[in-house]
Design goal:
Structural class: alpha/beta
Low-confidence stretches: 1-42
Largest sheet: 6 strands, mixed
Strand content: 15-25%
Mean pLDDT: 89
CATH superfamily of the largest domain: Periplasmic binding protein-like II
Shape: globular
Strand order of the largest sheet: 2-1-3-11-4-12
Helix content: 25-40%
Number of helices: 14
Number of domains: 2
Length: 345
């Protein structure tokens, strides 16, 4: 994706800041306790770094909250690299980045690494798609009326078609959020019996075009919205809560946040670069460790902390995610013992 190097640089700078926080023993969560409920507050230092590649929608949570809390609780260092899930998967496979942990939106970016790099993965949380908006936008009164229920939700899609409306979104060819936003539009078009050209009018052209002026790096999209450079933007509910964005919530049959509507979500699709067709599915977070990566013990400890009570509390309270019962895909005997303990195996 264009701007990947810039995103990685930004994430690297944020990671260095977090390392400074960790070294000072600071944690914005106030959480303590090691993975596996072994107790302690990070006084016992460990050598090694949890080098985490993660979907950019997790940037605030990982860099401001979770990374420092993990370092404080375990004594391991933390370093993060943000990017679109598909793009990160490609970089890991091409050996241009070398994380020991990978967190993606959806399991496909992990599954595509194959068993040589990722023998298993665990699904542990979910979110939904929302439309975030700038309260200073000239369209703010309409947004607020729709968000409060004073005006029908169907009017949102007519509003986004207006000439001069500035919409921000991510590239559907590399980022699950970019695709999820388009799936949502397609499902809304069906649900509200909107004209057949509604989606292309809102997107300003073909859905999979990577050259659209609406497309921004995910790591920069929220700041552009807050700066007023766009009127509205795609966002996950978790992002909107973390960053205190104004947003319009969407019904569960179109927001990709409810597994009971998986069959409905699958009715939406997009053909991306390479003539690959992707279909809608519930928005989940999936995590794995990368086989053969450096500092494997630190990576194992990070995953265990994600699955621990302390970690899950951070995802729910400060991350705005819906917690799922952790579900393992792959052979249980391939999962490190520390992580299996958190799975109750």
């Amino acid at each position: 994706m264009a701007g990947m190097a810039g995103m990685a640089g930004m994430a690297g700078m944020a990671a260095l800041a977090c390392l400074g926080l960790a070294a000072a023993g600071c944690s914005s969560s106030g959480s303590s306790g090691n993975p596996g409920n072994s107790g302690g507050s990070g006084d016992a230092k460990h050598s090694g770094t949890a080098n985490v590649a993660y979907a950019a929608s997790l940037t605030y949570l990982n860099e401001r909250v979770f990374g420092p809390a993990f370092a404080n609780a375990t004594g391991y260092a933390y370093q993060g690299t943000a990017g679109p899930s598909d793009g990160l998967s490609g970089e890991i496979a091409a050996k241009t980045i070398f994380p020991n942990v990978f967190i993606s939106v959806g399991d496909k970016p992990i599954a595509e690494l194959g068993p040589k790099l990722a023998r298993w993965f665990i699904q542990y949380a979910s979110t939904s798609i929302v439309v975030a908006y700038n309260p200073a936008s000239k369209y703010a009164p309409q947004f607020e009326a729709i968000a409060s229920g004073k005006k029908p939700l169907a009017g949102l899609f007519t509003l986004m078609e207006q000439p001069g409306f500035q919409l921000g979104r991510t590239d559907p060819n590399t980022d699950p959020q970019g695709r999820a936003f388009i799936y949502m539009l397609e499902l809304a078009q069906m649900k509200y019996h909107l004209p057949k050209d509604t989606v292309t009018k809102i997107l300003g052209g073909p859905p999979a075009s990577p050259k659209s002026t609406q497309i921004f790096d995910e790591a920069a999209l929220d700041s552009r919205l807050q700066a007023g450079q766009v009127d509205a933007a795609s966002a996950y509910l978790s992002q909107a809560k973390q960053l205190h964005l104004r947003y319009i919530a969407l019904p569960p049959d179109i927001n990709l946040g409810d597994a009971s509507f998986a069959g409905q979500y699958a009715k939406a699709s997009i053909t991306i670069t390479g003539n690959e067709t992707k279909t809608g599915s519930p928005l989940t977070l999936d995590i794995t460790t990368i086989s053969g990566a450096k500092d494997a013990a630190a990576g194992d400890a990070f995953v265990a902390y994600v699955l621990s009570k302390a970690g899950r509390d951070l995802y729910a309270r400060q991350g705005g995610y819906t917690l799922l019962t952790p579900a393992l895909t792959g052979p249980a005997d391939a999962v490190p013992a520390l992580i299996r303990k958190e799975l109750g195996r």
